[in-house]
Specification:
The chain has helices spanning about 75-90, 110-120, and strands spanning about 35-40, 45-50, 60-65, 100-105, 125-130. By secondary structure, the protein is an alpha/beta fold.
Length: about 150
């Protein structure tokens, strides 16, 4: 079919394997993010906040269910405030300074989540509302004939 190549290894090419020794050639570089985006998803049942860099890669996220709130307490303004503080603590290692806030959804903790992020010491550059609004939607059903 084709020519076969035979490769012979010399003793210099073969490195001895030492057991128990792990080489630390991989350097751990911490990602430095100065500007970020906080996406706040608020529904009637839960609050989700995630912080990403400007490309969209998630740095940290948290929700009220993750913090131990159950049932109707997940949608309270207090839970939204606690989620904002928790997600900031997780994102603190990236040296975040400025943040743009994008709020999506309607819920009782909407304003409280923004206040929680503002109270952590971050500079809020802008607050944007991305709540989906229906434009007429589907066609109505025809009237019933009796």
């Amino acid at each position: 079919m084709g020519q076969k190549k035979i490769i012979t290894k010399t003793e210099e090419d073969i490195k001895p394997v030492t057991e128990g020794v792990v080489s630390a050639s991989k350097k751990s570089t911490k990602k430095q993010v100065i500007n970020g985006v906080a996406h706040i998803n608020i529904s009637y049942n839960n609050t989700l906040i995630d912080i990403s860099d400007l490309k969209g890669d998630i740095l940290a996220w948290s929700s009220s269910g993750l913090l131990g709130f159950k049932g109707a307490r997940k949608s309270t303004p207090y839970a939204a405030n606690m989620v904002a503080k928790d997600v900031f603590e997780k994102a603190k290692k990236y040296n975040l300074m400025n943040i743009k806030v994008v709020v999506k959804g309607i819920g009782p903790g909407r304003e409280s989540a923004i206040r929680g992020l503002a109270g952590t010491g971050l500079n809020l550059t802008s607050i944007q509302d991305a709540t989906p609004i229906a434009h007429n939607g589907v066609r109505r059903s025809k009237p019933r004939r009796v």
